[in-house]
Write a structure and sequence with these properties.
2 domains; rod-shaped; 4 helices; 4 strands; alpha+beta; binds zinc ion
Length: 182
């Protein structure tokens, strides 16, 4: 009798354990499914990002190709000596062209001699910075506006007109020395 009772107790205990295991297995399966869904969503997002990056790369490559072609075309129009100088300065200094403003090279800020500055403002020949070697260019639109008392003498004839009017006039027809002959 005792043995039967004992065996029945054991059976009941085992059944409880089985039930417990089944419940925990069910919840594990649920979280596994949720993780699988998350993984799928993440994989899709990664794939989308990869596609976007590929498209961007293709676009950039196309752009680069166009720029390379443009550069080759532009280089064809420059003399070998100037190209060699440009390439040499580019290798040494990362960029080979600098603006000349306020009588200074805007890359190394060394003063430009007055005569060189005069030549530069015509933009008719290639002039390099005596200090850093970069090819200088001059942009008249970057010049500071002349203070009223420093205006060219020929404007004196219009001094009787209102200041506004003479300013407009000065903008409409720039002084002859700042417009290179076409
Ligand atoms: Zn310089």
């Amino acid at each position: 009798m005792h043995e039967v009772e004992f065996a029945e107790k054991e059976i009941s205990g085992s059944e409880d354990k089985i039930l417990e295991l089944m419940v925990s297995m069910e919840s594990e399966e649920k979280s596994l499914k949720a993780a699988e869904i998350d993984l799928k969503a993440e994989a899709a997002a990664v794939e989308k990002e990869k596609n976007e990056a590929r498209a961007r790369t293709a676009e950039d490559e196309k752009l680069l190709q166009g720029l390379n072609q443009k550069r080759d075309g532009l280089r064809a129009g420059v003399s070998d000596t100037n190209l060699a100088h440009y390439d040499r300065v580019l290798r040494a200094r990362k960029f080979a062209i600098a603006e000349a403003r306020d009588s200074k090279c805007q890359a190394c800020f060394v003063m430009i001699r007055p005569q060189t500055w005069q030549e530069l403002t015509t933009n008719e020949q290639i002039i390099t910075c005596s200090s850093c070697g970069r090819i200088l260019f001059y942009d008249p639109t970057h010049e500071p506006a002349l203070p009223p008392d420093a205006a060219p003498k020929k404007k004196k004839a219009r001094a009787t007109q209102s200041e506004n009017q003479s300013e407009n006039q000065a903008e409409a027809e720039p002084a002859p020395e700042s417009t290179p002959a076409q």
